[in-house]
Amino acid sequence: MNGDLRKIALESSMNGLTGRSLAKIVSGDAGFVLEDVPHLTDYIPDLPTYPNPLQDNPAWSAVKQYFVNVDDTVAQKIVVQKGSARGTHFRRAGPRQKVYFEPDEVHACIVTCGGLCPGLNTVIREIVCGLSDMYGVERILGIEGGYRGFYARNTRQLTRKYVNDVHKRGGTILGTSRGGHDTSKIVDSIQDRGINQVYIIGGDGTQKGASVIFEEVRRRGLKVSVVGIPKTIDNDIAVIDKSFGFDSAVEEAQRAINAAHVESESGENGIGVVKLMGRYSGFIAMHATLASRDVDCCLIPESPFYLEGKGGLYEYIEKRIKENGHMVIVLAEGAGQELMAESMRSTEMQDPSGNKLLLDVGMWLSQKIKDHFTKVRKMVITLKYIDPTYMIRAIPSNASDNVYCTLLAHSAIHGGMAGYTGFTVGPVNGRHAYIPFYAVTETQNQVVITDRMWARLLSSTNQPSFQTHQEVTKSMECLNCSTDGSPSKKN
Ligand SMILES: Nc1ncnc2c1ncn2[C@@H]1O[C@H](COP(=O)(O)OP(=O)(O)O)[C@@H](O)[C@H]1O
Ligand SMILES: O=P(O)(O)OC[C@H]1O[C@](O)(COP(=O)(O)O)[C@@H](O)[C@@H]1O
Ligand SMILES: [Mg+2]
């Protein structure tokens, strides 16, 4: 860092401390704060460095400034006022002049964990090709079946040839799983196999797992870079602009919405209901609705709704049917969970990773609407319910996600080769950065219903907000704050 930057805290003692307590915070002038990421030299002094092989690479040597300045940082907040403090920054991603690994020395591995997401295979492909093309690395192992694959499944050698076409396929060629994270067995396996770069692709749960793997690696003093690549179709990962696969999902969701629209237009008092993914965040539903313009109502977890009475969903449906003859409802899978739990006896069930298993809001709501209109209102309605969630999740990534996945993979590789560790990569206000694990795991990204985007949605669908201004403000006060009272990052 610049000489005028003052390190105020490097790290706490390594005994039993995790996450933010190990933060590397650097402060500078005018309220500048760098939330830095760990480096191998933090705990292994005097590591030798080598010139970055990119400088002899014909493709790269023509780039005017192909090495990132070691002091470059990316601002978390870009809308500022004259007197604002400069605020939080992250280390800029990209190739460094010096690397901490020789090509022959690198033994990398890649693992995918959690739910599927379009683009997983592209990230795998680009890590393999990037390591090989840019850094001459040839020993790359694929860990099969998620975290437990480190100690309970087979591995496979990943070569350029092997991964050549995989970006055209959905899913993950390595397989994935939930649960099964046993830190010491995983690190034993890393150590036994002589792996020194670990690329971990997964969502918030996976990044928490990666963080504890990093801490154990550091405790053992191993020269192993632990690098996270954030994945989730729900787009709920904090700090980064957007997660890969999200655009593909929104695009694919249009097909289901179109089908619901066609069905609803063709039946008597037709109602099309489409359920989309989004456990805690309604980004897919919100963006798919805004993109389509055929949707009359979008329901998301962040905005509670009610059915009966004035301003309720039934009243709105009846109004829409009467004025337009048909309507389309899009809902995120996490919407209305509390409402449903009130009317059903539900038991709290979890998946093997500890995520709450949701009740099927699409089925439930469809039945409620049918019952209300046929039994109470004595109206004929034709309701068609479409659940395309797994069909959407299983597609290959679209063109723009493919490019995004390539950038993520390259940022990850450059960071690993430069000796950074214990970090996640991702774009922050359009520039790729290295972000400490705790920053992406301590909060989740959610739709802010007091932001302009939700207002745009409400004005495009004309649906009721289901809440008074006071209620919205109050619920956002709770939602926007992490446990330390700092606002969580929203899109
Ligand atoms: N707090 C945690 N600590 C360690 N590992 C975790 C933690 N939460 C989840 N994991 C592991 O991360 C993997 C993926 O988590 P999951 O929640 O299923 O998906 P995602 O990473 O997409 O959120 C699982 O193998 C799970 O055991
Ligand atoms: O059926 P599965 O595999 O448990 O996945 C369902 C969940 O996976 C998701 O698609 C994404 O979740 P993760 O990214 O946390 O894996 C959620 O939207 C959905 O609730
Ligand atoms: Mg998750």
Automatic annotation (TrEMBL):
Listed name of the protein: ATP-dependent 6-phosphofructokinase
Gene field: PFK
EC number of the protein: 2.7.1.11
NCBIfam families for the chain: PRK06830.1
Residues given in the record as Mg(2+) binding sites: 204
Binding-site residues, substrate: 232-234, 277-279, 333, 390-393
Family assignment from sequence similarity: Belongs to the phosphofructokinase type A (PFKA) family. PPi-dependent PFK group II subfamily. Atypical ATP-dependent clade 'X' sub-subfamily.
Activity control summary: Allosterically activated by AMP.
